Amino acid sequence: MMISDPITQGLASAWQHLDGALQQDAQHLECDVLIVGSGAGGGMCAQVLAEAGLAVILVEQGPLKSSQDFKLQERYAYPDLYQESAARKTKDKAIRIFQGRCVGGSTTVNWTTSLRTPEPTLQHWQQHWGLSPLSGAALAPYFAKAEQMLNIQPWLNHNPNNALLAKGCEKLNWSYQSIPRNVKQCWDLGYCGMGCPTNAKQSMLVTAIPAALNAGARILSRFSVERLLIKQQQLQGASLQALDAKLRPSGITVTVRARQVVLAAGAIGSPAVLLRSKVPDPYQLVGKRTFLHPSVMSGALFTQTVNSHQGAPQSVYSDHFVWQDGAEGECGYKMEVPPVHPILLATTLSGFGHFHQQLMARYPHLQVTIALLRDGFHPDSPGGTVQLREDGSPVLDYPLHEFMWRGARRALLSMAELQFAAGARRVFPLHEQARLYRSWSEAKQAIASLPMQALATRLASAHVMGGCAMGGDERSSLVDHQGQYRWLSGLTVIDGSVFPTSLGANPQLTIYALALRNAELLVKRLRG
Amino acid sequence: MADFPVTFEPAEQLKLKASEQQIFWWFIPAFLDGVIEPQDSQAKRALLQRIDQAFQSLSSATQAELRQLLELLASRAGWLLLSAGLTPLSELSLQQRLLLLEQWQQHYLQLLRQAYQGLHEIIYAAWYGDPTTWPAISYQLPVAAKVLFDDQ
Ligand SMILES: Cc1cc2nc3c(=O)[nH]c(=O)nc-3n(C[C@H](O)[C@H](O)[C@H](O)COP(=O)(O)OP(=O)(O)OC[C@H]3O[C@@H](n4cnc5c(N)ncnc54)[C@H](O)[C@@H]3O)c2cc1C
C-alpha cells in the first residue's frame, strides 16, 4: 500500500539536500542563519525563519530517513534513529537516556504526548529565574499555534495499557487525564518509537522541516557541527564534519559562514557544541543543571492480555503526585505508561536466566507504569553536568542524591498501589533486588526497604532538558528569555536545553511554543 | 592481553576478539538459562554473531568501555578481583556462573553492577532483536502493518 511520503516527493522536487556520507570534498557555504540540530527546536525554528525569507541552513548529524525506512523493528530503529544506538547512559551508567539522532531529532521517534507547560512550572520560572515575560497568558498563543500546526488533540481511544492506569486511578480516587497527541489519521499501531511508517505522527520530519525546505531552506544531514567559529568575540559560523554511512567522521570538513547561529542540538548536544567551541562563559554554566525526569518503572502481571505494545503509546497520565507538596517541596512525579517492545523490555527488566524468561514469556499480560521524577525545582536537585570525553563526544554526569531517591521510593510505592488497585496479580518494581509481589501490603513492605541506589533501582529518561539555562540573572543563566547567548553576539539557543528546571510534563510542546516565539523574535532582531 | 586460554572455537569474521567472544560464550547460557542449552553451540554461535553486530552499532566510546570490561574479565588479575576466585570462567559450572551473576547483580561495588548490567543489556538486545525469538513471547508485528510492506 502506498503511503504518501513527503520526504521522497520533496527530494524529487526542488529541495536542497546535502548528505554528508556522499560528500567528496571540503566545501564552504554561506547563509543568514545556520541552525544546528533538526529536532523540536531546530525544526520549528527552520520553518519560521525560512518562511520569513531568510537564507537558512539546517544541519543534522543523523541521517535523513522517511516513512519507507521505518520497519517497526527495534533492531533497525535504535542504531538508525537514536543517539548512541539507544544505549546512551549517564556517566556512572545508572540512567539510560533516549534521544533521537536523525532528521526530526527526538520528534521522529517520540511517543506523541503533547502537553502545555504546567502553570506551576512557569510560575516557578517567573519567581525564581527572572522569566517574567514567560507567563501562561503570554505563551498561550504560541501553544495554540503549535497545537494547530501539529494537529494536537486529545486521544480518547485508550489501549488496555493506558486503560489500566485510568482504572487504578479511579479505584484510588487519584486524578488522571487524557493525553493530547500530535497525529493525523493515526493507524493506532503503537510503533511511534521506531519512526512512524504512515506519516501520521506530526513530527518535525513531516511538518516544519518540509515547510522550511519548501520555503528554500537547505538541509545538511550526516554532518556534525564540531565547533563554532569565533573571531575576536564575533561569531562567524561553524565548522562541520561530514559523517560516513556509519556516522563516523569521514575526515571531510565543511565550513558554514552565517550572520547568526541557532543552537538546537538538544540538551546534551547543545552544551557539547559550546564546550567544544570554548565559548566565553564567565560563570562556568555551560552544561550545568541538565535535567532528565529520571523515571522509575514498575511491571505488573494481569490475568487478561494487555499487549502493551499495541495502540497509541501514551494516552492517559496522572498528575496526582506532581505538585502535591508544592513546586519547591518534595520530589513530585508524573505517572504514564510506555509502549513496551521486546528489546526495550528485555534490557530494562532486571533479573536474568529463568526468572527473566518467565516474565518475558508472560509478555502479553505485562503492564508497565513509569513515574517521571520532577527534577530541578528543589535546591537538593541540581541535575547533572554535560562533560566532554577525550574524543569530544558528550557524556552526562548525573549523580543522584537523597532527595531524588526519596522521590523514587515514593513513586515505586504509588505505582505498585495503583497496579494492584487496577487488578494486577503480581507487581514487580524494576529493581535488581526486587521480587514479584503478590499483594499491595507485601509490595509496600518490600519497597520500603529496597536500597535506593545507582545500578540497583532501574532508571531511564526520554526527556533531556537544561544545560544552557535561560533566566534574568547573568550569574545563573546563559541565555535570556529570547534564547540570546549572553557572552557572544550572533548566537541564540532554541531547544530543550534552555529550561532552567525540568518541566514536570513531557517537553515537546513547550519546546515548540518557545521555538515559535523565539524564532519570531529572532526574525525581528535580524531585520531590525 | 587475555591471560586465560581460549577454550572454544572463536568465529574469525567477528569484530570482537577471541578472548572477548569467550566471555560471551560462557555467559550466554547463564543469561538465557532455560532458552539456550549450554551444549547448543549452534545457537550460541548465532547469538554471538548478533552480539557482534550490536557491538558494532555502539558508539566508539561505548565500544571502548565494553572492550575494557571484557579485557578485564579475560585477564587473570581482573578475574581474580571480580569473581573472588581463581577458577577460569570456562571451568565454572552453569550453576556457578548463575551464582556469580547473582552476586554481581547485587554487589556493593558499583563496578560489578555495571559489568552485570552491561552484559545483560547487550545479550538480551541481541537475543530479542531477532524476530525468530518473538513467538516464544507471543510478540508479533501488527497485522495492519503487513499491507505497509507487502507490495513494496
Ligand atoms: C523515545 C522518546 C519518546 C519521547 N516521547 C515524548 C512524548 O511522548 N512527548 C513529549 O513531549 N516528548 C517526548 N520525548 C522528548 C521530546 O521528543 C524531546 O524533548 C524533544 O524532541 C527535544 O527537542 P530538542 O530540539 O531539544 O532536541 P532533539 O529533538 O533531540 O533534537 C536535537 C537534534 O540535534 C542533533 N544534533 C546533536 N548534536 C549535533 C551536532 N553537533 N551537529 C548536528 N546535529 C546535532 C541530534 O542528532 C538531534 O536530531 C520523547 C523522546 C524520546 C527519545
Describe the SSE topology.
The complex is a heterodimer of chains A (528) and B (152).
Chain A: H1 6-12, E1 16-19, E2 27-36, H2 40-51, E3 56-60, H3 74-81, E4 95-97, H4 119-129, H5 136-149, E5 152-154, H6 160-172, E6 177-178, E7 180-182, H7 208-214, E8 218-221, E9 223-231, E10 234-243, E11 249-263, H8 266-277, E12 290-291, E13 295-301, E14 316-321, E15 333-336, H9 342-348, H10 353-361, E16 366-373, E17 385-388, E18 394-397, H11 402-421, E19 426-429, H12 440-449, E20 459-461, E21 465-466, E22 491-493, H13 508-527
Parallel strand pairs in A: 1-8, 2-3, 2-11, 3-8, 4-20, 11-22
Antiparallel strand pairs in A: 5-7, 6-14, 9-10, 10-11, 12-21, 13-16, 13-19, 14-15, 15-16, 17-18
Helix pairs in contact in A: 2-7, 2-13, 5-13, 6-11, 11-12
Chain B: H1 18-31, H2 41-57, H3 60-74, H4 76-83, H5 94-105, H6 110-128, H7 143-150
Helix pairs in contact in B: 1-2, 1-3, 1-5, 1-6, 2-6, 3-4
Flavin-adenine dinucleotide binds next to helix 2, strand 3, strand 9, helix 8 and helix 13 of chain A.
Average pLDDT for all residues of chain B: 92
Helices and strands of chain B: which structural class?
mainly alpha
The largest interface is: A-B, 51 and 47 residues
Determine the fraction of residues in helical runs of chain B and give it as a percent range: 55-70%
Q: How confident is the prediction overall: mean pLDDT of chain A?
A: 97
Task: Give structural attributes.
heterodimer; A: 528 residues; alpha/beta; eight-stranded mixed sheet; six-stranded antiparallel sheet; 13 helices; B: 152 residues; mainly alpha; 7 helices; 61% helix; globular; binds flavin-adenine dinucleotide
Structure overview:
The complex is a heterodimer of chains A (528) and B (152). With 528 residues, chain A is of the alpha/beta class. Chain A contains 13 helices and 22 strands. In chain A, the strands form 6 sheets. In chain A, strands 1, 2, 3, 8, 9, 10, 11 and 22 form an 8-stranded mixed β-sheet that branches. A 6-stranded antiparallel β-sheet of chain A has the order 6-14-15-16-13-19, with helices on one face. In chain A, a hairpin with a 5-residue loop joins strand 17 and strand 18. The radius of gyration of chain A is 22 Å and the shape is globular. Chain B has 152 residues and is mostly helical. In chain B, 61% of the residues lie in helices and 0% in strands. In chain B, helix 1 crosses helix 5, helix 2 packs across helix 6 and helix 3 packs across helix 4. The radius of gyration of chain B is 17 Å and the shape is globular. The mean pLDDT of chain B is 92. The chains are: A alpha/beta (528), B mainly alpha (152). Flavin-adenine dinucleotide binds next to helix 2, strand 3, strand 9, helix 8 and helix 13 of chain A.
